[in-house]
Structures are given as C-alpha cells and as structure tokens.
Amino acid sequence: MTRTSTNSPVITLKQALEVAExxxxxxxxxxxxxxxxxxxxxxxxxxxxxxxxxxxxxxxxIRYGITAAEFGEEFYRQVEELKITVPVVLHLDxxxxxxxxxxxxxxxxTSVMIDASEKPFDENAAISKEVVVYAHAxxxxxxxxxxxxxxxxxxxxxxxxxxxTDPVEAAEFVAITGIDALAVSCGTxxxxxxxxxxxxxxxxxxxxxxxxxxHLVLHGGSGVPPxxxxxxxxxxxxxxxxxxxxxxxxxxxxxxxxxxxRMTNEECKNLSPEMLQIGRDAVTQTVMEKMNEFLSSAGKAxxxxx
Length: 306
What we know:
- The protein is of the alpha/beta class.
- It has twelve helices and ten strands.
- The protein has helices at 13-20, 38-48, 58-64, 68-81, 98-106, 121-137, 167-177, 202-211, 226-233, 247-257, 265-269, 273-294; strands at 27-30, 52-56, 88-95, 111-114, 141-146, 150-151, 181-184, 189-190, 215-218, 240-245.
- Strand 1 (27-30), helix 2 (38-48) and strand 2 form a beta-alpha-beta unit.
- Helix 2 (38-48) crosses helix 12 (273-294), helix 6 runs parallel beside helix 7 (167-177) and helix 7 runs parallel beside helix 8 (202-211).
- The two termini are 28 Å apart.
- This is Fructose-bisphosphate aldolase.
C-alpha cells in the first residue's frame, strides 16, 4: 500500500512522464545510494522547482546495506520534513526478483523496474507482464528493459554486454506486457565512461517512438554530454522522458568528503554532522546542475498544475 494521498507530491512514474514527454524535457531519476543523501536530492528538486525521481536498484540495496523498507521510510520522512511540493516519484530501479518488487511496493514505492533483459524475448515479456499485473493492481507504475544496456562498474547490472533495442520487438513487447515505460539500449552505459564514449542512436529512438507510444527511458546518464541528451528528448513525436543518473552523484559525494572508496550506508550515517552537510551540499549542487543544464526540467514543476 502506497503512502500517497490527494495532497501528496508523490506520484507514479506514469503520471510524471505523461507530463514530461509532451513538454520536451526529461525527468532525472537520481540514485542517492545512501539514505542520508535522499534529503540532498529532494532539496535539489525543490530548489530548482523541478519534478524528480528518487531511485535505488536491487543491487544497490545489497551493496550499500539497505532494505527497501528503510529507503522508503527515509524518503517519506524527508518529503514531509522538508515540505517538498514538487512532483516526485519513488522508484525501484533494476530488479530481477519479484519478491524485492513486492517489498518495495509495500514500502510505498510508486514505480518499479523489472529487468529480465538478459532472458529470451518471450521469457522477458512473460516476466514483465507478471510484474505489470501485480503492480498495476496496487496503483504502481512499471518500467522494463528490452535490449541490453552496457556497464562499466557493475553496480546496476551483471554484464558489460550491449545489445541495441530492436524497434519492431519493442512494439511487440509493449503490446504484450502493458508496461508504462521502456528502458532502451541505444548507446549509453551504466557507470563512468573511460575508454568507450557515450553516443545515442537517435534514428533508433525515433523508430521505437513511431512504433509504440510508451514512455522511453535512457539509463547511463552520468557522463553524457548535455547537448547529446537535449537532442534525445526533443525528438519529433516525443523522445526520451526519463534519464537515470547515479554515478555522478556518488562521485561528487566522495570527492567532497575526500574519499575514493565507496562507503556502506551505515558508514555514511555515522559521518559527523559537518561531513554529512558537506556531502549533501555537493550532491544537491550536482543534481541541480543536471536539472538545469542536462534535463531542462528546472522550473517545470509548474506545468504539472496546468
């Protein structure tokens, strides 16, 4: 059961993207990775008057030592304490297990992503449809992935293999599953670009858009040049309307703290108040920069009231 109400700023992914797509901006799906940084992401959205998505993946929950319930509890606590008024989605990113999805929905997540992209088409579609049936009955949006998005740090995915999304298969997949958003593989990758450089196959995106009305998602937003991203959500007929950003937030946090190695969530919670504030300020600044320069979502919270 979600904790949203008629006067709550917390909405579903479907509700958020239905506004973003026709207004030609993308909503950032930001992973704070540490519960003390949830406040920093929310403050950035409030400060930029931007809609936003706060997310965490199944692998991040494991790696940083967090439960879905703990993440959801802190999210809703901060929404209330910070008096957040901009539209915000609580999203479970890359997840392969239905049990984790059920736990997240019970914790108040308003959107979940089932990632069965490594499975054959028919199996991916069947698994994704099962999640859609379960989540939609709870009023929760569903994102799925078709094709395989590459990676460089293996925080969110297990393989660095990349397989571009086929537009014809995408249309069939959406029709079978009834998903609300589709993560497509068209040149970006999870993690930091070191040797391989980001690129976006705009022709592929336009073909997918022409064949299916589903909202499109780009994963691997960290490190992509702003002009490249702007082109992706200004495509004729509607382009990308959700972009995942995680690595850039953690890098700014660690740099501000003078650290190179990741922490556990418990280590982050045990930082001194002074160090926590330094870290939060860095994350807030990074998120606001993305909203202003990268996503064009700054100031767009107002369009949700029209």
